[in-house]
Amino acid sequence: MRPTRKGAPRNQGPASDFAGNRSPPQPCRVTHSPADRIIAAAGGRSQTQLHEFRVPQLRYGRQIVIVSIGDLVLDIAIVPDGPLVPDDDSPARITIGGGGQAANFCAWLGALGEPVRLVTRIGDDDTGRRLVADLESRGVDVRATWTAEPTGAIAVLVGPDGRRTMATQRGASVGLSPDDLDQAWFRDARLLHVPAYSLFVEPIASATRAAIGVVREAAGMLAVDLSSAAGLRAYGPSRMAYVLARLKPEVLFATEAEASTLAVPLQSLAQVPVLKLGPAGCRVFGQTIAAPDVKAVDPTGAGDAFAAAFCSAWLGGSTPVEAAEKAVQAASQSVLVAGARPS
Question: Domain 30-43+58-71+100-151+173-334 adopts which CATH fold?
Answer without folding.
Answer: UDP-N-acetylmuramoyl-L-alanine:D-glutamate ligase (3.40.1190)
